[in-house]
Amino acid sequence: MAEHYQFRGTTAAEISASVEAGVRTGALPAGAPLPAVRALASRLGVSPGTVAKAYQVLRQRGVVETAGRHGTRIRPEPPVGARRVELRLPAPPGALDLSIGGPDQRLLPPLWPHLAALAATDGTPIGYERGGVLPELVEAARQRLTADGVPATAVTVTGGASDGIERLLVTHLRPGDAVAVEDPGWANLLDLVAALGLRTVPVPVDEAGPTPAGLRTALAAGARAVVVTSRAQNPTGAAVGADRAAELRAVLGRHPDVLLIEDDHAAEICVEPLYPLAGATRTWAFVRSASKPYGPDLRLAVLTGDEATVARVAGRLRVGSGWISTVLQRLTLALWRDPEVADRIARARRSYADRVAALRTALAERGLAAYGRTGINVWVPVPDETRAVAGLRDAGYVVAPGALFRLRSGPGIRITVSPLADSDIAPLADAVVRAAAPATPPTLSA
Hints:
Layout: H1 12-25, H2 37-44, H3 48-60, E1 64-66, E2 72-74, E3 96-97, H4 112-120, H5 135-147, E4 154-158, H6 161-172, E5 178-183, H7 187-195, E6 199-206, E7 209-210, H8 212-220, E8 225-229, H9 242-253, E9 259-263, E10 283-289, H10 291-294, E11 301-305, H11 307-319, H12 326-337, H13 339-365, E12 377-381, H14 385-394, E13 397-398, E14 400-401, E15 412-416, H15 425-436
Parallel strand pairs: 3-13, 5-6, 5-8, 8-9, 9-10
Antiparallel strand pairs: 1-2, 4-11, 6-7, 10-11, 12-15, 14-15
């Protein structure tokens, strides 16, 4: 616990390093509160200003967050390498883990046959002088994006959606700049923005995605970048429809210098069609990951946008890691070209949609509203998410607490449908309703 951790240091740098050491060893786990500024200053024999400076540095690095009256706490996923392989608590024996947020492993296309086929072809090693984006992958990506209404003149490849978004933010913004993000929204993005020293400005989300009023407010507050999830929004399953896309484009059109980033992370497993915002501002990018449809270990995403933006991302990659492995690029291209893989993903798309619909229907029949138009997650608003998570854990289900995804939005829980079988739906719905019920206040009797 934080109160037992031995904080050390007489300078802001030493104190912040002491906190990071606690995070690395697991002595300061996610959510652990740090001492009040004056209390720690008294304990260490330094001025309150020194501790305040240390906490400010930790906030800028994305290690801690300040939660008003709740003080300063370690962020859910601080950008500090831990000594333990996994600090996340394991699911209890026999529990059904619905908290991961990943695809159903049973529905992913097998990669090994395609890797074997690649190995059987001419395997001349790629050297530094030949590394880069494969032209045939670019052409295939361009065709797929254009078919979905995304203009794809300039295309590059990044190491997944997070990698692409990070490079976009780093090449366009400076520490302290504000980024408009969905609320509730993707936990990794919230942590990434904090780790880059940027500020989040929350935009409320409904079933059709970011609300136009919320986006207007965020842009009026000075947001220099906007990140929008096109569909299968994490955690709510929202999808931007035709009407909402038109409204958002109108709002963005009044702020032409804002960086617009669209994240189509689920792509082929979505039943909802794509209504892109691409081109609504002068500076824009559209990122499509291969992880959800084809497997999380396939760390690759295609990124298109205006020519200057794509060139910045490609240039940043070139002076860093250089390029995304051509082995991964060739594997992705082989998967795209395989009709059996396309059929498998179509079955996965229907399966996810059926499970999301079945769980929402079961909850609605029991009087509980839930959200999830597309994707693999269902968002359930609850009055007390700590109680709901604990109650479901006792009933044999592990779900993700809404606190991981929220800035100002109300409490909730996220349920990933990937592990669910048809026979799991009704018992799970019963358990969710029980766990989400408001606590009964104690009564006194004579």
